[in-house]
Design goal:
Elements: H1 23-49, H2 59-89
Length: 90
């Protein structure tokens, strides 16, 4: 059913006791882990440094505004960090 809609699974594959992962499965898992690593550090920073993931707001609009401001702060901090790296290497 899902193959008919050209949907591909994004679930990591797992080896079994007497049936280790094939090279193709290892490569696919590695590709998926690269994406996870790029995304998860953002949420980790928001949770640790911005007291994120537990949002207290009145209404959905307030929650969306708070999440939006957290994203904006992350993006500004990231931009400043990348600018410093570029200046130091130039």
């Amino acid at each position: 059913m899902l193959e008919a809609d050209d949907y591909r699974s994004h679930v990591h594959t797992k080896g079994k006791r007497n049936q280790p992962l094939t090279d193709r499965n290892k490569k696919a898992n590695s590709k998926r882990l690269q994406t996870c690593a790029r995304v998860e550090h953002v949420f980790g920073l928001m949770e640790n440094e911005q007291n994120g993931m537990f949002i207290r707001a009145i209404g959905m609009a307030g929650a969306k505004a708070k999440i939006g401001s957290m994203n904006l702060v992350y993006n500004i901090r990231r931009r400043v960090s990348l600018s410093r790296i570029a200046l130091s290497s130039a």
